[in-house]
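Request:
You are asked to prepare a plain-text protein record giving the amino acid sequence and the backbone structure tokens, at your earliest convenience.
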Amino acid sequence: MNGSYGPDFRAELRDLMRWRRDVRRFRTDPVEAAVLNRCLHAFALAPSVGLSEPWRLIRVETADARAAAIANFEAANATALAGYDDEKARLYAGLKLSGMREAPVHLAVFCDEATPKGAGLGAQTMAETRAYSVVGAISLLWLAARAEGLGLGWVSILDPVRLARDLAVPDNWHLIGYLCLGWPEECSDTPDLERAGWETRAPDLIMEIR
């Protein structure tokens, strides 16, 4: 490999990115261990500031842990709904914003803000780059999952402090994302929020020149 790819590969990559959607409607069928492990290998390939690899994953499987996470979402979702009025409140109430009850795989992904790995290179001036590294790794996981036919949903309507407490993680672990992973009920290249009339994609990239 000389570092470049042909037009067919580039077209498939564009398709993969276009069909990567935030999935909230899952079938309950289990995900085979080999398929999940291939997806999780994306973390080993992800870049990280100072090669710090600050991601920390918890697979949320027990009934108690899942119930706590779902209760967390439901409380946060009710609070969020109360912040909208009129048409936005009506639209929000009709959105399905979590696949937590159906998705067979739940992953809580944290950033270890105190990791000694990488010796602080790049993070001394911008500590947030550790969290950015975890976000970048999740993006690779998302694409890997889509390539396997899986869907991934990122649940951000949560109290991160409460979740960290419920999962008993170290104090220096900061929640980046609660991820639901499984087989989607349907596939679409259009975001759910756009189909529901909540928001539309910007027609053009916003970029300025200085």
Q: What stands out?
A: The first helix runs from residue 7 to 19.
